[in-house]
Amino acid sequence: MGLFDKLAGWLGLKKKEVHVLCLGLDNSGKTTIINRLKPSNAQVQDIVPTIGFSIENFKTSGLSFTVFDMSGQGRYRNLWEHYFKEGQAIIFVIDSSDKLRMVVAKEELDTLLNHPDIKHKRIPILFFANKMDIRDALSSVKVSQLLCLENIKDKAWYICASDAVKGEGLQEGVDWLQDQIKAMKT
Amino acid sequence: MELNLNRVDYLQVGVTSQKTMRLLPASGKRATQKVVIADHDGVIFCFGMKRGEAVPVFKTLPGQKVSRLELGGAIGTPQEKIFIATGSEVRGFTKKGKQFLSFETNLTESIRAMHVSGPDLFLCASYIYNHYCDCKDQDYYLSSDKINDITCLPIEKLGRITPILACKDRVLRVLEGSNLLYEFEVSGEPTVLALHNGNGGNSGEEIIYGTSDGKLGLVQITGNSPVHLWEMLNEKKRGGILCIDYFDILGDGVKELLVGRDDGMVEIYAFDANNEPGLRFEHALSESITSIQGGCFGKEGYDEVLLGTYTGWVTGLTTEPIQKEVGPGDEVKMNQEMQNKVLNLRVELEQLQGKLLQEREKYQQSAQSSGAVSAVPVFSVNDKFVLNRDDASYSLILEVQMAIDNVLLQSDIPIDLLDVDKTSAVVSFSGCDIEQNGNFLLATYRCQANTTRLELKIRSIEGQYGILQAYITPRLQPKTCQVHQYQIKPLSLHQRTHSFDQTRPVNTLTLTGQFSFAEVHSWVVFCLPEVPDKVPVGDNATFYFQNTFLDTELECYYKKGEGLFKSDNISTISILKDVLSKEATKRKINLNISYEINEESVGHTLKLIHPKLEFQLLLAKKVQLIDALKELRVHEGNVDFLIPEYRSILEEADTLLEEYKKQPAHLERLYGMITDLFIDKFKFKGTNVKTKVPLLLEILDNYDPNSLLLFFDSA
Q1: Is the Cβ pair A172, B251 closer than 8 Å?
Q2: How far apart are the C-alpha atoms of B157 and B206, rounded to whole Å?
């Protein structure tokens, strides 16, 4: 990165564009998280289950994200793989209060990681253990154990407990993602 | 739904008394509340949390020890005025720390309990209850035993003022004006009272009480009699209850019961459809919990249970998850907050170490000078010496604000020290020479690091009375020691009750002579535990007692110049006779002692002992067989060839062994009591039968109730 580019980057004049895939089971809070990351005047009030997918944009201090907010419903999940090629990073959202479907989430994660488009790409994966405000939610450590995240060796990953309704924990996660993407670029 | 709460330590202040920490109601938009806590140095400290840092609101100057802290305010407005009781004075502060009230009550003793409701102020000193309205004296009552706590049914709901006193003699007293409306007995010494559900329940008449032996109960106080709704026994042998609050921590719309105990246990009970409590969560701290309250304190949106401990820690049990972020790598990363905390502590520690070194040098130098006097650092010890009903032993609980280094126990009478599972201290018994220095027991408890609380179990023998001394040394520089003395009374195993079974055969001891009412009361205080030091009102007094080991009863009735003692146990009467005549001789008072022995009472007492003795003998016999049976099982591979009786012993082997371990020397104790009974019975007849004791022991070894009774009658 040249000096001028860096300067422009610091001043927020020019931001790198990144394509991110937001995945996870239905009702895990993907759309709510993306909505929360947008500037406050662009946020929508009510969120309905996504059909197919939608494309959203948000900016952080150094990057401009384009997110493919995929629907997590069973019948739309085979849609995910069509967008794997474009993804430069993955946000995987888990409903940490849904202990029953934790295995389904693990299953989907494993298929994702073993997909030929993903398997050999060194892209960062950010996990959100969402809905941590619910009383009997699992902790992020517990979620990472249940999903066997320690087996991911060739990709950078990070798990963050979040409460998408209040916006807690999201910033930490996106900050990490930004650092990873920047490190990848240079 | 299971409840997960994470512990967060916020801040430490000085040593605190019972019920001296409260959460101020949330004000304005801010959802988090502020906490106000008062300690023994008289400092009232109010603070809130902002990003993991304590932000003080106000802090007052040190003064007298604060014994209670309550919130109040005009009825209908948020209760955010802070009232504290220090000495005999009540002070009021606004939530900003501005003092608006200073009320000198003219009580001779310091205030022990306080309740505030609108303009009404209810205060209790040791025995005195006083009600003030707008600081004007309204009602007054003198209780017959020490008052532990006070509460008042909600005035705005019922339209009348009904204060309830929790007294040391296991009685709740309901007052009306300056008079006693009625009183009723509860199963233990009540230490704390609270309105059920925080508002008195649906009727506004329900109060909950916690006792010093760990029981909880709910009572409805109606106009003329109490209705007991439920009572929770203390099966796990937990400590006494010091604080109670109601808060909806589960978030299900029903308030849960939060309980703090003096052994550091925090419990949360939820109510089911029948309004019966069920335990949902428990957590153990290492020191006694003096205050408990639910609210939102550390972080917006996460409810928590806030605790105040004896040594002044403000600790929270929060619903907020602690570990939020993880990445690859084996070690769990510390979050930023934690790192900051460690860093801050390290810096602070370094600074303090430097300062300490300087001061120590200075001290060493000035200690050399001949004119200087070296002052001793003062520390407070929270102690409790109570009789356990279920196993007839005393619990001595010592708690110091600093970690204890060692505790030395010295006794001038024979006592047994029993093992307590909770105690991690190492005990060593020193050999003592009874002839030379009169010590029957010298034991040292060396505590492990960071033990602030030590629990000991002591077993005394009826009739052997004297003083037990504890020398407590905390980890403090310069090392100092504090001595505490505990009386072991002649009838140490008797517990006070409020009823007496008149149908039992009784032996009577009558005292007459030239003594005053106060004198005879002081003798009773000397002989029996749980009698108030203060001379009772009126010209006579009656107390009832029960022996916790044998369930025999004792009635004491006395007035000026006369005392009447009735018991169904001859040994009790014999001990009383010896001690009373000794006391009278000491004061040079001429006593006429006469006694009346009921022959039936011996049989009656033996009948009471019989089931216990039989149980212990059977247990001992079974335990003896366990090892042999186990060996047989190993050899043969199975136990099918054994008779069913032995098979059942093998099945229950673990429980039997545990039971046997729990009751060490129980059999010897029973033998001792029977021997005492035997000797005492004949002593009253004027014969000395000490030579026949070996014969009695022989009979006891081959125990049969009829032959024992026969021996008692014939010998």
Answers
A1: no
A2: 12
A159–B321 C-beta distance less than 8 A = no
Of A43, A73, A88, A145, which is the active-site residue?
A73
What is the CATH architecture assignment of A20-184?
Answer: 3-Layer(aba) Sandwich (3.40)
Q: Does A172 touch chain B (CB under 8 A)?
A: yes
Distance CA B392, CA A148 (A): 55
pTM of the predicted model, to two decimals?
A: 0.85
CA distances from B312 to B18, B19, B261, B316, B638 (A): 11, 12, 15, 13, 58
Could you give the CA distance from residue A35 to residue A39 in angstroms, rounded to a whole number? 9
> Which residues in chain A have Cβ-Cβ distances shorter than 8 Å to B321?
132, 137, 139-140, 161
Q: Using a CB–CB cutoff of 8 Å, tell me whether B1 touches chain A.
A: yes
Q: Is A173 annotated as a binding residue?
A: no
Which 8-state DSSP code applies to residue A151?
A: G
Contacts of B482 (CB under 8 A, 6+ apart): B379, B381, B471, B472
> Is A180 an active-site residue?
no
ipTM exceeds 0.85, yes or no: no
Peptide bond preceding B529: is omega within 30 degrees of 0, i.e. cis? no
CB contact under 8 A, A140 and B326: yes
- Domain match, B97 and B201 both: yes
Pairing type for strands A125-130 and A89-95 reads parallel
Taking the CA atoms of residue A133, residue A137, residue A140 and residue A146 in that order, the dihedral angle to the nearest 10 degrees is -160
User: Tens digit of pLDDT for each residue in A34-57?
Assistant: 999 998 888 888 888 988 889 988
Q: Are residues B178 and B50 in the same domain?
A: yes
- Same domain for B87 and B156, yes or no, is yes
| Separation in Å, CA of B252 to nearest CA in chain A | 11
Q: Please indicate if any CB of chain A lies within 8 Å of the CB of B336.
A: no
